C-alpha cells in the first residue's frame, strides 16, 4: 500500500495566499488598463484619420456606371 506524503497545513495556506495575491494583482492590472483605454477612447479622432477613413469609404462605394455593370 502506497501512502501519499502528508502536506503541511502551511503549504495550503501559502497556496491560498499566493492565489489571493495573484488575483489582487490581476484586478489591479485590469483597473489600470481600463483607466488607460478609457482615456484613449475619450480623445478626439485626428482630422487626418477622419479624412483617410472618408477616402476609404468613397473608394469602396461603386460609381453609378460600375453599379449598372454589376447588376446586369
Compact summary:
The chain has 72 residues and is mostly helical. It has one domain (10-71). The chain is built from 3 helices and no strands.
What does this structure look like?
- The protein has one domain.
- The protein is 78% helix and 0% strand.
- The chain has helices spanning 9-42, 47-60, 64-71.
- The longest helix is centred in the middle third of the chain and has 34 residues, at 9-42.
- The chain is elongated and about 85 Å long.
- The N and C termini lie far apart (83 Å).
Sum up the structure in keywords.
72 residues
**Count of beta strands:** 0
Name the structural class.
Answer: mainly alpha
- Return residue spans where pLDDT drops below 50 for at least 5 consecutive residues: none
For the largest beta-sheet, the strand count, sense and barrel status come to: none
What's the helix-strand series?
HHH
Residues in helices, as a percent range? over 70%
Distance between the termini: 83 Å
Fraction in beta strands: under 5%
The domain count comes to 1
Radius of gyration: 29 Å
How much is the average pLDDT? 78
- The number of helices is 3
Shape: elongated
Lay out the secondary structure:
Elements: H1 9-42, H2 47-60, H3 64-71
Amino acid at each position: 500500500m502506497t501512502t501519499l506524503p502528508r502536506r503541511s497545513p502551511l503549504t495550503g495556506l501559502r497556496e491560498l495566499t499566493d492565489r489571493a495575491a495573484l488575483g489582487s494583482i490581476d484586478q489591479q492590472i485590469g483597473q489600470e488598463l481600463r483607466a488607460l483605454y478609457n482615456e484613449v477612447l475619450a480623445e478626439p479622432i485626428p482630422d487626418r484619420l477622419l479624412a483617410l477613413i472618408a477616402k476609404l469609404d468613397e473608394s469602396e462605394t461603386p460609381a453609378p456606371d460600375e453599379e449598372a455593370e454589376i447588376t446586369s
